[in-house]
Design a protein that fits this description.
There is one protein chain. The protein is 46% helix and 14% strand. It has helices spanning 8-23, 54-67, 137-152, 157-162, 171-175, 179-182, 184-195, 199-204, 206-219, 222-242, 259-267, 270-275, 292-297, 325-340, 342-349, 366-369, 378-387, 401-407, 413-429, 442-454, and strands at residues 28-30, 45-49, 71-73, 87-92, 98-105, 109-110, 113-114, 125-127, 133-135, 246-252, 278-283, 356-361, 393-398, 433-437. The radius of gyration is 27 Å and the shape is elongated.
Length: 458
Amino acid sequence: MKLITKKNIKKEFLVNLFSELKHANIVYCVLGGYENLPEKTGNDLDIWIKPSDASSFTTILKKTARNQNWKITVPNVSPRLSSYEKKYYLINNQNVLEVIHLDCWSFLHWRGIPFVNEKKIPKFILTHSKNFQYLSPNVQIMISALKDLLYKNKIEEKRKSLIKHDFKLQRKEAALPFIKPIGKNRADYVAECLSERKWEDLEKKVSAIKIKLVFRAIFVNHIKQLYWLLKYWGGIFNLLLIKKYGLFIVFIGPDGAGKTTLAKKILSSEKFSKLYKDKYYFHSRFPFLPALRKVVELFGKNSVETKIKIEEENDYAKELAPLGLLRSMIYPIYYGINALLGYFWLFQKKRIRGGSLIVFDRYFYEYKIQKEFIRCPRILLNILEFFIPRPDVIVFAKDKAENIYLRKKELPLDEIKRQLRECEKIVKKNKKSIIINTGSSINIAAVDLEKKIAQFVR
């Protein structure tokens, strides 16, 4: 039996999707970035769909994904003007993790105001030799340039480079879908500046283009525009206050088990870069409250508090005997308060456009694992753990104690075995946990971990 490689599994899906769309006479087009299709998709694949076909497109997409074992995740990361306009993350982790990012639109807009007449787009849809539909380069250039101007007040350098010196923009064709949103004179002017590469002249007119867009939205499309604005601001409200999209991962395990290496591999993963816009890495704690050592120093050298031996957050003295009862309680209480502040940070980061991947090395579980805190009452740690933010998934980097000892001889063998037992208790208590064996190859473990973490993407 021929195995499907990680390269052609995407191709197979896209070929079947495009074939089904053609068979159903769905009017759609790929918006740029189609040069390497269907073999490669780049970071994402933008697709415009005729509004009346959007529902059928969604049905075909879901059917094709189901037939080929692709899981669909629909993150709430940006407001749309139609219920069928969505961002789709298609995930397949049968062999190795593969991700396809589809961004589907029917109304291309700026702050809820469409800047393209969607009724004119079908006239400029072309069929590629590889059996998919794409937008005329002339119209595509206008869309990309206007999007840059409206959202960034300038045309990006990468966009300028796409307009090759030997490429002559067909002004009449390029301007037609934009006459209704910004008026004929403005549409012609934008096409002229792009054709003659007058970037600075065009960027000076950004305010005038925005004013014209708003004016015509109010006085030409007033009824539809009111509906679109309600949809847009409803989407903003939903994005900020209701739905969330992000993943909070905690890695645990003795030093030398490979947890830090695995964490960094997940953060640098191309697949997770498609799933999440922003990535964050923390060691042990959130960076809100100052290190306990600095707080103690404020009381002076002779104070009772300075008798507490404070270590740097990621440099616990492994050879020390367990701390006394009071000292073993101060650490988790102080940093537990610090973790409580993480609720507000996580709330905000899981609601940014594109979502966030938050990775912790050790986190609060440090106090249940490390030798120094054996005397801290378990009931105190359990109470604090109940109130602080809970990770979406815990990853236990596991290996034989003897292997860990050979890699990093900082802890006695018996202590490594004890820490492994503590980690086992933590993952048994938490249903959303992954045990990953790092004994053979860290690279193999990282590939396996990608697939397992993908199951928690929602």
